[in-house]
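step=encode ok
step=design start
structure_in=
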């Protein structure tokens, strides 16, 4: 993906807005705030300013995931869920997760992927 630009990937079936930081420049607080605000503005322009979202931040990238709800059939989904880590409390929830798959559940919690500018 392009450095310091908001992008989405066709590989994910749910809506997301990412910023790749690259290695060329240090990740300063100012750069991080600018990246966050730019991604949040894109999310708000697409889904509305009051839309809830989850965020994942690493040394190399930031991702925002707009969401419609915080759980699916009693399985709570937080930011780690969008990284593929979901805690189930019962055997039934675990079987449900295995039956439907994490990508399907994340698409139901979030929004289906839409094309919005830079694609990778």
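sequence_out=
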């Amino acid at each position: 993906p392009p450095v310091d630009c908001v992008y989405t990937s066709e590989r994910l079936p749910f809506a997301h807005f990412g910023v790749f930081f690259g290695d060329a420049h240090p990740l300063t607080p100012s750069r991080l705030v600018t990246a966050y605000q730019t991604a949040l503005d894109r999310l708000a322009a697409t889904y509305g300013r009051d839309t809830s979202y989850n965020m994942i931040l690493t040394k190399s990238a930031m991702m925002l995931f707009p969401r419609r709800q915080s759980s699916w059939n009693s399985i709570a989904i937080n930011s780690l869920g969008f990284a593929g880590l979901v805690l189930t409390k019962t055997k039934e929830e675990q079987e449900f997760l295995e039956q439907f798959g994490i990508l399907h559940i994340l698409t139901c919690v979030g929004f289906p992927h839409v094309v919005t500018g830079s694609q990778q």
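step=design ok
step=annotate ok -> The chain has a mean pLDDT of 92.
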